[in-house]
Amino acid sequence: MTVFYFVRHGVTSHTGHRLSGWMPGIHLTDEGRDQAEATAEMLTAVPFKAIYSSPIDRTMETAAPIARIHGLEIVQAPNLGEVEYGKWSNRTFKTLGKTKLWEKVQRYPSGVRFPEGETLREVQTRAVEEVEEIAERHRRQIVCCVSHADVIRLLAAHYLGVHIDLFQRLTVAPASVSVIALNDGRPLVVNLNTSPPNPAKDRS
């Protein structure tokens, strides 16, 4: 059995109102860095054998404190990278919400290709293939994978046997942890969307 801890990156200036996609230079905010540290502290006792991350800035920055605490190098895994949103990258949700394609994304996401970008089926396929390759390399071990909300939701949907058109019913908050175990083809979704303590709240 290989146990995966999937960590979503912490918040950036784009989180919640603008699609970042694969844009470079989108870094964690102070809040996001606090979240990453809190998640790393929450995972201190987990005996990770490897840390994998999407190569995008915000995920690498989230993976850094986890890797530091565990004394591990971060292995970049491009197939765990964000959805390629194409022309939608760097556009606000408010603007996108006015397009016809946005409505289709909400109702029938499996049938959508983002303009000059990927389909969600393609994203799910590449992410699942990456996870199962990692599982082959780390049999009977625990690994951490830092990725993005939609990628983690698509992975969870796959292992839950949930159709892509329903994947948006799953919530994956910034810096949250979701745990999935792969046991010789029998996946077990252990938990979803566990968030660390709120550092700002703890200081108040």
Structural write-up:
By secondary structure, the protein is an alpha/beta fold. The chain has one domain (2-196): Rossmann fold. It is built from 7 helices and 6 strands. A 6-stranded mixed β-sheet has the order 3-2-4-1-5-6, sandwiched between helices. The chain is globular. 38% of the residues are buried.
Give the mean pLDDT: 94
Helix-strand sequence:
EHEHEHHHEHEEH
Provide the low-confidence segments as ranges.
none
Major sheet attributes: 6 strands, mixed
First-last Cα distance: 41 Å
Keywords, separated by commas or semicolons:
204 residues; Rossmann fold; 19% strand; single chain; six-stranded mixed beta sheet; 6 strands; 36% helix; alpha/beta; globular
List the helices and strands and how they pair.
Elements: E1 2-8, H1 30-42, E2 48-53, H2 57-70, E3 74-76, H3 93-96, H4 100-107, H5 120-137, E4 142-147, H6 149-160, E5 177-183, E6 186-194, H7 199-203
Helix pairs in contact: 1-2, 5-6
